[in-house]
Write a structure and sequence with these properties.
The structure holds two protein chains of two kinds. Chain A is α+β, with helices and mostly antiparallel strands. Helix content of chain A is about 50%, strand content about 15%. Chain A has 28 helices and 24 strands. In chain A, strands 1, 2, 3, 4, 5, 6, 7, 8, 9, 10, 11, 12 and 13 form a 13-stranded mixed beta sheet that branches. In chain A, α18 (about 490-520) packs across α27. The longest helix of chain A has about 35 residues, at about 745-780. Chain A is elongated and about 135 Å long. Chain A starts with a helix and ends with a helix. Chain B is built from four helices and three strands; from the N terminus they run αβααββα. Chain B starts with a helix and ends with a helix. Chain B has helices spanning about 1-10, 15-25, 35-45, 70-99; strands at about 10-15, 50-55, 60-65. In chain B, β2 and β3 form a beta hairpin. Classes of the chains: A alpha+beta, B alpha+beta. The interface of A and B includes residues 24, 28, 31, 35 and 70 of A.
């Protein structure tokens, strides 16, 4: 109650501020005059009386400030400090710009990386109770798995036997051809999903409805749910699409719903359709059924380890029940967030640490600037103290200035980060590039604000605290001479050492990534990606095997006859495609043990002139021909790694692989083709190449077309040819092979580019920092240099004086930096390709890279000292 | 408390308050006279005194401070507290002497 009255009294004083001051002044003047009059009456001279009265009253400014503190609001003082700080900045625009820009770089880099971290590791996933959603994967006990894909029969086993989940669901990737109204047939990214899929994720549709178990019964009318982006792209965001019929893979389907933009499971899916698999629907449990991604929603109260145990129990049961097919497999699980972003998490953490280091360097630079300025401003501080400013007021003033600088830097940094994120968001690799995946939201803005305030206080604290230990009278007197060991020098040198150390850590990190990327780029691919156009076609699943073969043979012939095309081939999945199909084999040169297949290898199916089109060479034997598809004993190829792993000595040509009772004859061995099952960074595994034709029913195939023609022109010609073969069929993903490889190395290139630019900025800032410190100490020690020169010191000796001191601290920084780098670079291990994180060559290279510009900066500053004219320096006194 | 007590007898201006504190205490309590003014501002803010501009005997304008009802009450509280404290100190000192 009282405080409210007090508040209004203060408020009334705020508006009558002018009057308040004049009244207070008048009152105090009256006091002084009265005292003066009395003193004169007591026999003092008028002049002496005035001084005595003033002394008695005390420091008028201080007293007025104290009165003001009583009646003023706390904010007012901050406001005045801010105004004073802004005047200071305006008076030295060079200093202010340098400080703000330096901070903007540091805060901008940190904010940009934090935007990525926030979007992936922190932001709430757009599914209710997302922490209860698990990805369930199928993992081989030994050797390579199939990217976590689960066999459909095994999914139904989990569904029936698990007691940890409310629902389990699966999806598989499908690539049907859509004909909407009068539009041309267009390829569409789709997912076939089981009935409970929508319940697992619990997201409401944006329009209409989703579907459930009733729609996934066989022979139900076909329904589809559109993604937001497909709805926009194909239907222009027309709300009346619900209930409209479209043609999907030559069958009629009804649009029943549209999902919100935030629902992106799987990644870039444009359309969801009901999958009609039934528990008994698959004849065998073999690896051919292993193509679904499985998710489950945990029951309330069931922990992750409990669910994992439950899944292990089911896996164990299945191993015993189906030793022929399931013996090698177990289930694993991970939370949704790890499934989505687990792979890039280590890289993000490294980048976040790197950007914080950059920010630290920026802070140190600005702290150094402020320290130098504080030395220059000592007189100002002394004057203000003498006029009655308390220590706390001065410290607060300094902190206000540094915080304002940091906020300025933060605002510009935030702007830079926003521009950067806005510009590159769509080009980010993988999931990060999806629309809406990486956006700057309020938490990021608050983060930037908090970082600015904290850094402002942090780098302002050093000069602010130093201002407290200030001898007033010597500072106020001019011309105090400065010799070696001037105050603040050591602090500055230590800061330089820290900068050098951090720069070295960043440089080592960047060098490791560069070396790794270099090794990745120049490691032999096993094929020639230049002048190769690739595209995909997917026929409806229901197409007859003979019809499939005929369609593809027709397309193959037509493309071969296009002018400018030198070779055409087909394969079921291109190198760099994240596509998995593996088989177990026995071999006629290895012992056969029941339920223990001798060989497990990745399968690919090829047709046409695949090897010549992609530019891969044979090591032994012959390649496959069109006639091979019809042979009684199917001829196959294996790769070099297969030969190395399973038959290291002697020729494999003429030997046989066996699946159950069927035999396949190895007719040739080809080189290792990198990236067969995804990343080109992965070492090639054992591979077997079958003919795609011959009733195998390989409905989806990728074409590899070798030609010197421009890709756009070639794509148009091919589209025309495919349209002539089947007017309801479209081609998809037409890309030069070069682009596919670039996409598959996008993540390491982004890491390298980011860390590299951080290191470059850090190096630049460190050089500016060390230059500034040396130059400042030269300026401070001008007279000393003058005396030394006058006493006969040579220019070299003078320069060495400064270089030696700066280099001593730089070297301390290098030693500390190497130690820190050794400890930190193991974080990079998962990002490195054929490079050890403690590679001494890279450390030495980074040190050289660091020390050359640092030495140059030091030398440049030190040479100023050598040029000091002793007469001038001593006269300046 | 001292300011409030001084004002209990009659309204005074700042200089008068300083003078009377000095006189009544026989020059023992002479603080920096100026610090009187921030203190007066605080009392004004608390509503314990009120101020008005009047003419002095020498025909100069001066601000006179008057004790308000709230100020009188506050003075009572503070005097009581002060008495209690003095009494307490006295007891401690006596006890120390007696021991």
């Amino acid at each position: 109650m009282f405080s409210i009255i007090r508040f209004f009294r203060k408020l009334s004083k705020l508006f009558g501020r002018e009057r308040y001051w004049s009244e207070l002044d008048e009152e105090m003047a009256f006091h002084r005059e009265q005292a003066e009059r009395e003193l004169i009456a007591g026999g003092m001279s008028p002049e002496a009386a005035r001084y005595a009265a003033t002394r008695q009253l005390g420091n008028a400014t201080r007293l007025k400030e104290k009165s003001h503190e009583t009646i003023g609001f706390r904010g007012e003082q901050v406001l005045r400090d801010c105004r004073y700080a802004l005047r200071q900045f305006a008076r030295s625009p060079g200093f202010s710009c340098a400080a703000i820009l330096t901070l903007a770089l540091g805060i901008g880099a940190t904010t940009a990386i934090f935007t990525l971290v926030q979007a992936t590791l922190l932001r709430r996933l757009p599914y209710p109770e997302a922490d209860r959603i698990l990805n369930i994967s199928d993992v081989r006990l030994h050797g390579r798995s199939t990217g976590g894909l689960v066999g459909v029969p095994r999914f139904f086993d989990i569904s029936a036997r698990s007691n940890s989940f409310d629902q389990v669901a699966y999806f598989y990737f499908d690539e049907p051809t859509l004909i909407a109204g009068t539009r041309l047939p267009e390829p569409i990214e789709a997912a076939g999903v089981s009935g409970q899929f929508w319940k697992v994720f619990g997201v409401r549709p944006f329009l209409g409805r989703t579907f459930d178990e009733r729609d996934t019964q066989p022979n139900m009318p076909e329904v589809v749910v559109l993604s937001y982006s497909a709805w926009q792209r194909i239907f222009g965001g027309d709300a009346s699409v619900i209930g409209r019929a479209v043609t999907l893979d030559k069958e009629t389907a009804t649009i029943v719903g549209v999902m919100p933009q935030s629902f992106q499971i799987p990644g870039a899916t444009e359309l969801w359709l009901p999958s009609t698999f039934t528990p008994g629907g698959f004849q065998n449990r073999g690896d051919g059924t292993r193509f679904v991604n499985v998710f489950g929603r945990l029951k309330t109260g069931i922990s992750l380890p409990a669910a994992e145990t439950d899944l292990h129990r089911i896996g164990e049961q299945l191993r015993r029940e189906y030793p022929g097919t399931d013996a090698e497999w177990q289930f694993g699980s991970e939370p949704m967030r790890d499934h989505m972003f687990g792979e890039i998490k280590p890289a993000l953490i490294v980048l976040l640490i790197a950007s914080s280091m950059l920010l630290l360097i920026a802070c140190i630079n600005v702290a150094n600037l402020l320290l130098s300025r504080a030395t220059v401003r000592q007189r100002e501080v002394a004057l203000r103290r003498a006029l009655g400013a308390s220590q706390a007021r001065i410290v607060l003033q300094f902190l206000t200035e540094s915080t304002l600088l940091a906020l300025g830097g933060g605002a510009i940094g935030l702007g830079m980060a926003y521009t950067l994120v806005h510009a590159v968001a769509a080009k980010l690799p993988g999931r990060l590039g999806l629309p809406g995946a990486v956006t700057m939201d309020w938490p990021v803005v608050w983060f930037a604000f908090a970082v600015s305030v904290v850094t402002g206080i942090a780098f302002g604290l050093v000069p602010a605290l130093r201002s407290r230990h200030l001898e007033l009278s010597p500072t106020l007197k001019r011309g105090e001479s400065r010799l070696a060991g001037s105050p603040g020098g050591d602090v500055r040198n230590v800061l330089v050492a820290v900068q050098v150390a951090i720069s070295l850590v960043l440089l080592v990190g960047a060098s490791l990534l560069t070396e790794s990327l270099w090794k990745l780029m120049k490691s032999p691919l096993g094929f020639k990606p230049e002048h190769v156009l690739t595209f995909d076609i997917k026929l409806p699943w229901e197409a007859s095997p003979a019809g499939v073969d005929e369609f593809y043979a027709n397309v193959q012939r037509r493309i071969e006859s296009l002018p400018g095309v030198s070779a055409v081939g087909q394969i079921d999945a291109l190198p760099t495609a994240d596509w998995h199909l593996r088989s177990n084999f026995d071999a006629d040169w290895l012992p056969r043990i029941a339920n223990h297949p001798a060989i497990n290898a990745e399968d690919r199916h090829i047709a046409g002139d695949f090897l010549r089109a992609i530019g891969a060479s044979m090591l032994e034997g012959r390649t496959l021909t069109a006639q091979d598809a019809l042979a009684k004993v199917t001829p196959i190829l294996v790769n070099q790694q297969f030969a190395l792993q399973y038959h290291p000595a002697g020729s494999l040509v003429g030997k046989h692989l066996l699946i159950d009772s069927e035999a396949f004859e190895i007719v040739g061995v080809l080189v290792n083709v990198r990236g067969t099952a995804g990343s080109i960074g992965q070492a090639p595994g054992a591979e077997v190449y079958f003919p795609a034709d011959g009733g195998q029913g390989v409905v989806g195939r990728s074409f590899v077309v070798r030609s010197q023609l421009p890709p756009e022109q070639l794509t148009r010609a091919i589209q025309q040819q495919v349209h002539e073969v089947d007017a309801q069929q479209a081609i998809r993903n037409a890309n030069p092979m070069d682009d596919l490889i670039a996409t598959s190395t996008a993540q390491p290139r982004m890491n390298m580019a980011l860390l590299g630019s951080f290191a470059a900025i850090a190096l630049l800032l460190a050089c500016v920092g060390i230059y500034g410190v040396v130059a400042f100490s030269v300026a401070q020690r001008r007279q000393e240099v003058g005396i030394r020169t006058a006493l006969g010191a040579t220019r070299v000796q003078i320069s060495l004086l400064f270089v030696r001191r700066a280099m001593t601290f730089a070297l301390i920084g290098v030693v500390a930096g190497s130690a820190a780098a050794l400890m930190l670079t193991h974080l990079l291990k998962s990002q490195l390709y054929e490079v050890q994180p403690n590679d001494p060559v890279i450390y030495i290279a980074a040190m050289v890279l660091l020390m050359i510009p640092v030495f140059a900066a030091t030398l440049r500053a030190a040479l100023f000292a050598a040029n000091v004219n002793p007469v001038e320096a001593l006269r300046a006194e | 408390m001292l300011i409030l007590k001084t004002l209990q007898r009659a309204p005074l201006h700042g200089y008068g308050i300083a003078l009377s504190i000095k006189r009544l205490s026989d020059d023992v309590l002479t603080v920096e006279e100026g610090s009187l003014y921030p203190a007066l501002q605080r009392l004004l803010l608390q509503g314990w005194v009120k101020a008005e501009w009047k003419m002095t005997e020498t025909h100069r304008r001066a601000r006179f401070y008057t004790l308000t009802a709230a100020g009188r009450k506050q003075l009572g509280i503070e005097l009581t507290q002060f008495d209690q404290m003095i009494a307490a100190i006295g007891r401690v000192l006596q006890d120390a002497q007696g021991a």
